[in-house]
Amino acid sequence: MTLHSVFIFTVNVAFNKPSYIQYSYPDDDDWDASNAVDGRKSNLSYDGGQCAPAVRTQTATWWVNLTTIHSIHHITIYFLMTYGELDFYTGLSNYLIGFSVYVSNTTDRLQGTLCYKDDNFTPLTIPSVFTTTCPVHGQYVIYYNERLPGVIYPRGYSAAVFSGHCEVEVYGCPGGFYGLNCSNACPDTNCYCDLVTGTCQGCKPGYQGYLCKSACGRGYYGVECQQECGHCHDLTKCFHTNGSCLTRCEAGYHGEACKASCQYGFFGPDCLHECNDTCDGCNRFNGSCDSGCNPGWQGYECQDACDTDSFGYHMDLCKTPCPSGFFGPDCVDICKDACDGCNRFNGSCDSGCNTGWHGYECQIECSPPPTPPPARWDKDRSAELVRLNPLDCFVYCAQSALNEFLTGTRFLTTQGETQDCLLREHLTETIATRARCASSITPGFHRTPEP
User: Mind listing the GO molecular function terms for this protein (predicted)?
Assistant: First the structure.
């Protein structure tokens, strides 16, 4: 049977099917991937509106989804010509050589069959219309090319690639049919049959054996029965064609094929049960709190609240106190900067405030202290002390400092400000000021007192 005679028996099963192009030109419908399966091929130039070129990069991928598994005979690709064959061979062909064509049941080319790998064409010998015979069964026809860093390619290869397709035609029949215009059903219903004679050439997914009369054995499904079923509650209910579980999933799994693990916060068969709110997640099989409790809880199932005097401890079952500067559930809250440390349970500033702050939460900043009235000095007594012993002068200075402190304290109290921080600052300033008096005294001399 010649290739020409097979044309009569098959149809272009890629026509108007969903397609995809990697690194397409953004926001340009004139170069959409679907242009390569719309049946138009009268204008193979860039601006003809019938092609699907892509950006030039290190990898190039284009595929068409036949939507179901088909029996394929051959594939034809019409490459972008730009402005004629001369331009194709002098400006485009070096970006195309080295390409591959795959047929797969998924978009992953490596899970499919390699129909063709170019390791022979040069920029001057690659045809602008390429055809390869590929008698396989599959759902996706994938074009792929690459120029990877560090790889030495033959002379004439470009540094980048792109998928320059104007039309891709896939000739064959839907799985289970053959003959003129694919109008005959295969005699053996579980087979992919010869496109001309109808004889069995391979089994559909889920079947095996002579003429594909036997379903996959327990626990297996798919093409050639080589895929393992997921975590079905009853493996005899794993559907032999696609692996879906006809009954519920085992504990810890969910999804049509019961292959997906439970998400955080769920457990049990089909992952339908929610973890206890007091757990930090839970065991996806039985719901136990294996990963620990949420702050403030303890116990195997995190069912017991921490004791009142333990609130604010870490998640290791309320045994480790918060470090200095932290408080609250799981010790994640930070004490206020104004606190000199804080209560590890509620964050209150039990240990006092840092300098410049006051209040129960040390939330009030101290205002500048009011200026107290000047202390009264006995000028006559001061003058007399100039002639006395320096030690007596020091005693007088100290007594004056104390009087000044008491006077200022009374002033602050009468102003309604009983702020500890102001009193402390006032005392410190008063003593420092009067101490300078004594340090400056020399025998026979006393500093003139302030008015």
Answer: scavenger receptor activity
220 phi, psi to nearest 5 deg: -135, 155
Is 366 within a domain?
Answer: no
List the CATH number of the domain containing 65: 2.60.120.260
The three-class DSSP label of residue 239 is: coil
Q: Does the residue 348 lie in any domain? A: no
Q: Pick the range with the lowest mean pLDDT from 100-109, 265-274, 417-426.
A: 417-426
Structural domain for 152, as ranges: 3-180
Question: Is the residue at 235 inside a domain?
Answer: no
The answer to whether the CB of 214 falls within 8 A of the CB of 208 is yes
Residue 161 tokens read as: 């690639």
Domain-ending residue, one of 180, 204, 224? 180
Choose from 23-27, 227-231, 413-417 the range with maximum mean pLDDT. 227-231
User: pTM for the complete prediction?
Assistant: 0.57
Residues 6+ apart with CB under 8 A from 201: 71, 135, 191, 192, 193, 194
Is residue 328 included in any domain, yes or no? Answer: no
How far is it, in rounded angstroms, from Cα 350 to Cα 69? 74
Query: Which residue bears the tokens 């068969």?
Result: 269
Q: Please give the C-alpha separations between residue 355 and each of 110, 137, 313, 395, in angstroms, as whole numbers.
A: 70, 81, 29, 31
The residues, ordered by sequence, that sit 6+ positions from 262 with a Cβ below 8 Å of its Cβ are 252, 253, 254, 268, 271, 284
pLDDT tens figures, 309-348:
444 444 455 666 777 788 776 677 888 888 887 887 778 8
* 34-43, 179-188, 223-232, 413-422: least confident range: 413-422
Residue 165 near residue 62 (C-beta atoms within 8 A) = yes
CA angle 239, 172, 117 (to 5 degrees): 95
Other beta carbons within 10 angstroms of residue 150's beta carbon come to 4
Which residue's structure tokens are 């170019």?
118
Q: Is 258's pLDDT higher than 90?
A: yes
pLDDT at res. 289: 87
Contact status, residue 251 vs residue 267, Cβ threshold 8 Å: yes
CA dihedral defined by 351, 357, 362, 364, rounded to 10 degrees? 160
Cross-strand bridge partners of residue 202: 192
What is the residue type of 120? N
